């Protein structure tokens, strides 16, 4: 983490009302909650195909740039690079918030670097940034039931039973993002991975 540099928190998702409730759009949901926490309002950013909100974490805390790329998921990297360059954010200070098939529903995990696990948004970010060393807040959506195609599963809305917990889990994911920014990935892992 680079002292005094701003943080770029990227909620991954697809633009458009028809995708708003999809499992794949949980990154947007977390970004929206974080914006409300820091008093930021999303607006179009001229330098990137993205909606951006800005604010500070706590009084005098680090500056947060919250982004929701308006490209589709598999093209998320270009807006992320444009924003990182414009706001002078080092890769160490970038956090991607995304849905994760390999984590059970109800769990939020955090890591820095590593593979993309077939996630097209992460693949696009890694390729465009030329690095995998950004932090990831992984919102568990679990594996699709039966023989359902994972691509169809991520583009479907959360089920009724899942929706009962969704608000709480989005809140927890936002807490994890704040912990990564304020205390670092390892601290966030120690605090949140046991629960």
Please tell me about this protein's structure:
Helix 1 (26-38) crosses helix 5 and helix 5 crosses helix 6. This protein has helices spanning 26-38, 77-87, 120-129, 150-154, 160-183, 185-192; strands at 7-11, 43-45, 50-56, 63-69, 94-100, 108-112, 135-140. The protein starts with 6 loop residues before the first strand and ends with a helix. It is 36% helix and 21% strand. It has 6 helices and 7 strands; from the N terminus they run E-H-E-E-E-H-E-E-H-E-H-H-H. With 195 residues, the chain is α/β, with parallel strands linked by helices. The longest helix is centred in the last third of the chain and has 24 residues, at 160-183. The chain is globular and about 50 Å long. The chain has a 7-stranded mixed sheet with strand order 2-3-4-1-5-7-6, sandwiched between helices.
Give the termini distance in whole angstroms.
25 Å
Q: Kindly state the mean pLDDT as a whole number?
A: 94
- Outline: globular
Estimated share of beta-strand residues: 15-25%
What is the number of helices? 6
Q: How many strand units?
A: 7
> Would you identify the regions where 5 or more consecutive residues have pLDDT less than 50?
none
Please provide the ordered H/E string of secondary-structure elements: EHEEEHEEHEHHH
Query: What level of helicity do the residues show?
Result: 25-40%
Strand order of the largest sheet: 2-3-4-1-5-7-6
Given helix and strand content, the structural type is alpha/beta
* Largest sheet report: 7 strands, mixed
Radius of gyration: 15 Å
């Amino acid at each position: 983490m680079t002292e005094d540099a701003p943080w770029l928190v990227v909620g991954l998702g697809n633009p458009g009302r028809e995708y708003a409730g999809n499992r794949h759009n949980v990154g947007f949901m977390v970004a929206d909650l974080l914006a409300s926490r820091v008093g930021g309002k999303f607006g179009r950013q001229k330098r990137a195909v993205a909606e951006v909100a800005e604010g500070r974490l706590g009084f005098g805390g680090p500056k947060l740039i919250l982004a929701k790329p308006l490209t589709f998921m598999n093209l998320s990297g270009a807006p992320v690079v444009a924003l990182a360059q414009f706001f002078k954010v080092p890769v160490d200070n970038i956090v991607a918030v995304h849905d994760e098939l390999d984590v059970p529903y109800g769990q939020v995990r955090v890591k820095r670097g590593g593979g993309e696990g077939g996630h097209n948004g992460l693949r696009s970010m890694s390729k465009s940034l030329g690095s995998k060393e950004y932090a990831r807040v992984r919102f568990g959506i679990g594996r699709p039931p039966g023989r359902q195609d994972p691509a169809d599963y991520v583009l479907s809305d959360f089920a009724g039973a899942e929706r009962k917990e969704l608000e709480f889990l989005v809140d927890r994911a936002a807490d994890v993002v704040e912990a990564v920014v304020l205390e670092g990935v390892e601290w966030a892992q120690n605090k949140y991975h046991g629960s």
